[in-house]
Design a protein that fits this description.
By secondary structure, the chain is an all-beta fold. The chain has a domain at about 50-90. It has strands at about 10-15, 20-25, 30, 55-65, 70, 80-85. Strands 1, 2, 3, 4, 5 and 6 form a 6-stranded antiparallel β-sheet that branches. It starts with 7 loop residues before the first strand and ends in a 6-residue tail after the last strand.
């Protein structure tokens, strides 16, 4: 369910690629609308802001149920990860 009081949202975290430590605990949230129905394929966009420091990172995208649970902390964990190299924090 993606409605109050616990809407489901896409969210991301940045993990330091060298140390494995969390660099950014909570990124921007994006509501999942329309809902993703069981057995159906759905596509959503997620806006991401890079960390302020250049370096090697892992971008982790996950789903949260606001005020209730983060799916990347469950067992089994639900998330997708991709390696990302941040070259600069300059806006172009």
């Amino acid at each position: 369910m993606t409605a109050a009081p616990w809407p489901c949202l896409l969210m991301y975290r940045w993990i330091d690629g060298r140390t494995g430590e969390m660099a950014v605990e909570q990124g921007l949230r994006t509501i999942i609308q329309p809902p993703a129905w069981p057995g159906m394929e759905s596509t959503y966009s997620l806006r991401v802001i890079a960390p302020s420091q250049p370096g090697d990172y892992i971008l982790r995208a996950t789903i949260i149920q606001e005020g209730w649970r983060w799916l990347d902390t469950l067992a089994p964990a639900v998330y997708a990860e991709a390696p990302v190299k941040v070259l600069s924090n300059e806006v172009v």
